[in-house]
Queue: 2 jobs
Job 1
Amino acid sequence: MTLVTSRVISLFALCISLFLLSGCGQTVTRVDANSVTDLSGNWNDTDSRLVAEEMIQDVLSRAWLTKYNRSHGRAPTVIVGTVRNLSHEHINTQTFIADMERELINSGDVEFVASATDRKEVRGEVQDQDLHASEETRKSLGQEIGADFMMQGSINSIVDAISGEQARFYQIDLTLVELGTNRKVWVGQKKIKKTVEKGGFRL
Amino acid sequence: MLKLNLSIIFYLLRRILLVSACMMLISCATYSQYAHSLRDGLLHGDPDTSLAIAEKKDPEHKEIISSLEKGMLRRMTDDYSGSNKIFEIAKQEIEKLYGISVTENIASLTINDTFRGYEGDRFEQLLLHAFMAMNYIQLERLDDARVEMLQANIKMMEWGDEPDEDAFLRYLEGIIYENLNEEDNALISYRKALIVYKEKGGQHYPRIPDILKKDLLRLLSVNGLNSEFDKTKKELSMVTYKPAEINNQFGELVVILNNGLAPIKSEAALPIFSTEVQQNLRIAFPVYRGVKGVLDKPVIEVAQQQFTMEKVEDIDALARYSLEQKMPGIMARATARAVVKYNTQQSQQDGSFAGLLLTVTNLATERADTRSWTTLPQEIQLQRIRLPVGEHQVEIQMKNSAGKVVDVMSESVIIKSERSSFVIKHWNAPRIGLPILQVVPQTEERK
């Protein structure tokens, strides 16, 4: 082997060694909040947003709403209860609930009341006003609006997997229940299916 | 042509080795040496010191093994959400290690096995989910504990035909399902747990625990599977068993005790004869030295009654079994590595400094991979006790082999109607600085 090739090989080896030892840098790119970013195949913001939008569109276009409007002469008051996570992932159902609340309120077709935990804080504030606020600005207790309907639901998943490949199926079920009568006035369902493939090799 | 290629490859490897050796400060201490110092605090009843040592290592949480140790030590110091945070990081890093790494394999064949990414043995990966679930149980987030069980399920599914089912994981899964009113799912979990105990009991799993037999029978009767109930009763020689009547004045206490510490690997070196180069070559590999330790026995005292606990997982046996299974691969890699190292040395036998350096490096870098999750318990013990609804004082007495009580752990528990209340503890040595018999109302603390 000539001296030149040996030098070249040495350099090459040095480069590989350096490469082995070097950590990779981090880059940040800003993307639109509405863009679809599928990284790991897990439940993500896009799923949460799409499901919330479609479900709420569906619930607001059904007969129960017009019926209620006709018989009561006002928009119904809705509250979002719990959405249970029965899937295989730690899904933050709070963001999903927040997405739904936003869609519901912004539609203007229904009235909306604060959830049980939020109400506690608000009541605390009203009690505090009782002591400290001036008479003309003071709010009194017992003036709350009771909700007519409650939305509840669950996120379920079925996963089928063999080495390196997964098929994930999510099913989101939501029900709108009339408070007092426990009558179900609307049932919504949305399904999402994804396949995830993992690479057999890495660096 | 092939010969030329091979010689170039050897030349290349030699250079890589040389340059890497010069540039890297190769730590000669094995993981087991670190693990001994890490566990020192635990063995003296001072988990805070151990946690402090663990937290100092790998502050960026890149190493899976460090994250696993940190997570367990945070648990032992009652920081359940902190524990799950770091466990979750470890879980994601394990996911990243999926697939065969090119560079790691080159390094493991030229330097040593510690350059392979540590993703944990399969039993460790499953126990990660189990301990995360226990954290969630103690944070009173049962739905999240359920998620962990489902993830473990997917993992086992991915492993394919021989899924390495973990008996304790299945049992815990059943208990979680039962508490979420999913009796059908719970029954399936108990059945799966029973299969593992039945097939592997007495080897690397304990024999079928009596409590599991009762749980399975109880659920068969709850689900109305009467013929299977009768059949299983005979099979498990529990003919006289009658499930307790459903009564909303009763709840259940589940005590899980993580007793002792898992074994630590140590390094062994051996000269082996390589037919390829007709030479004796030195190779290093991991072994479990020493026999299984004798554990102190727990006795639960609650409502004026005493209960013993049953062994549901034998991690000591699992660890030894897992290493045994991996030994052929470890040996094959070590032999191949020794041959590569020998060849590189031979080609640099010109009395030069580089040649000498290479020989020294080859000797110094031949280390065994002694990494393992060393803060795992030696055994997991469990007991389920039916109790009337209301507040109860639970005492776990630790008795040594002479029957003398060496430590007492106390906790006040509120039993709810037809629900399980959990007491999950770790025990290695009596806690220092704490007077024995101190009562901490755990349920208040959790909030």
Job 2
Amino acid sequence: MMYSHRPNTVDKTLAASLASVILLLVSLFLPFLTLQRSGINSSISLIDAAWSLVFSDVALLGVFVLLLIVFIPLTRFGLIIFVLTRLKFGGKATPGLKRSFRYALALEPWAMADVFLIGVVVSLIKISQLAVLFIGPAFWAWVALIMTTIFISINFGRDTLWLRINQQ
Amino acid sequence: MHNRRCDRCGAKLQSRKLLSLQRTWAFLLVGIFAYIPANVLPIMETKWLGGSSNDTIISGVVALYESGSIFVSLVVFVASVVIPVSKFIIIIGLALTLQLGWQWSEHAMHRLHAITEVIGRWSMIDVFVVAVLVSLIQLGVFLSITPGAGIISFGFSVVFTMFAATSIDTRLLWDAQTNEA
């Protein structure tokens, strides 16, 4: 299929992108997992986790993770929101607008929130014998984020959006 | 063609990606070379009272399998071994086909190329596993997990293989056919 028309793609994608940004920010700061061992509870949020990695002797690992699950997804959502609000409110199709949309498309494979979730599940199973773990609210926010991201890719009418951009 | 831009998206027009094959080989070689230490060196070290163990990618898979999580061990094995190795093979195949003018079905080659672009990112699972375990287990004296050099090599291997896949100019696959006709 070379071309596909998706109705309401601007509104649906815009709404889901805004929701995704909120969910991502919420999951960064709320407790993601709580670990219980010998009576000690320690909760950890994603931002704590990433920060402790970035300032450890394996800074590179922290940088990898921050880029792939925080900065690249946020940049991508930001670009999509920028382009779609301009479209919705009749902004001009400037070269900057087109470039933003191109970059948003190019960033897609590098936004790895979904891969990260599988990694979290594998880690949970790996240490289930060493410690008792509880899933925090940020984990569920992250699951919701995966759903809004899937919703975006289902309703993302790339061709329709390029047409709209060029009609402005 | 010089300095013309696409009417639709504003990207610079290029007949063919510059030095597509050279770039592909360069990225791919880095990806393959980084994959060797990724498998030989430990990806993480677990220390507890009175003992410690080094995990490599394969020993991590085996440990999961032996603990009874057969499905999960399979997921990790596919992400860390099957996907990277099949990506190496597919990209080598595509690059050699272009280089030596082999005749294959272009549709099959395009499909293989599309598949490598879609599945490559799932290799990152192990990197995230180590990152989560390391930051989660900070219980000091009882138990500590530190990442090994292997996981960084593995991350680089995945990133460079993704670069290699995107730097293949798929239009070259059609050129090979047109030149023959």
